[in-house]
TrEMBL record:
GO terms under biological process: regulation of DNA-templated transcription
Subcellular location: Nucleus
The UniProt record lists the keyword Phosphoprotein: no
The protein, known as: BHLH domain-containing protein
Amino acid sequence: MSRRGKGRRPPRAAAAAVAVERKVRTLQRLVPGGRRLQPEQLFLRTADYILLLRLQVHVLRELVPAMSYMDMNGCAVGCNSTGVKGM
């Protein structure tokens, strides 16, 4: 039975570790403030960030029909709460 050197990983484990490190660096670049976080905190921040992005998408999807309606009725930017353009 041969022994591997201390601290050495089998080739598959080493490749997997490199892949994980690459993905962590990518997350650190994508998540605001992620570059200064350790992986544990980064994963929590990533989950929060995903929820925030989903909320933003939901809000924007709800706004599109309203904005389209306002645009079709000649009222877009500069309208007051009654839908009348201000002077």
